[in-house]
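Tutorial handout. Part one gives the primary structure; part two gives the three-dimensional structure as tokens.
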Amino acid sequence: MVKVGKHAALIVVDVQNDFCPGGALPVPEGDKVVPVLNRYIDFFRSAGAPIFFTRDWHPVDHISFKTQGGIWPPHCIQNTWGAEFHPALKIGEKDFIISKGFERSKEAYSGFEETDLDERLKRLNIKELFVGGLATEYCVKHTVLDGLRRGYRVYLLEDAVRGVEIKKGDSVRAIEEMVKAGAVKISLNHLE
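Part two.
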């Protein structure tokens, strides 16, 4: 069992309309993470632990878009429906929103890249990160790896992630890479 104490934070990665069914870049069954993440959110809220929501917040001409030579269709463009969080996600007034990928020339898969996430976590004396969301092999993986590089103990919420699966097995390989780097796979029933 893993105890959620005063040095723990939940990081919900990019659960936005464009990454869910009906969006511009849907992760297969991406919306299925929402009820599971909401249970984690309730758990962390009742433990008094901080909750962070990362989001892609791209300009219309972001480097990752096919129109700019990138590999993705335009998605999560600032101030559009696609960039909004999934409507069923339980975001509270005291939760933190971390916007990333807002500079045209920077990819920013990780919630740490070009953001103040690390500073905010340090200010709150956070040592452990619990990470779930979309997509397993991109923004989740990069956020987990960056967290490990910065010295946090990182738990991957295996029941609350989904992958894009451009190539079959991408998600499994990403999870293996995260675990090899030091992340610990857990599910909701491991928390106390």
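Part three, for discussion. The domain at 8-190 is CATH 3.40.50.850 (Rossmann fold). The helical segments are 33-46, 117-123, 136-149, 170-181.
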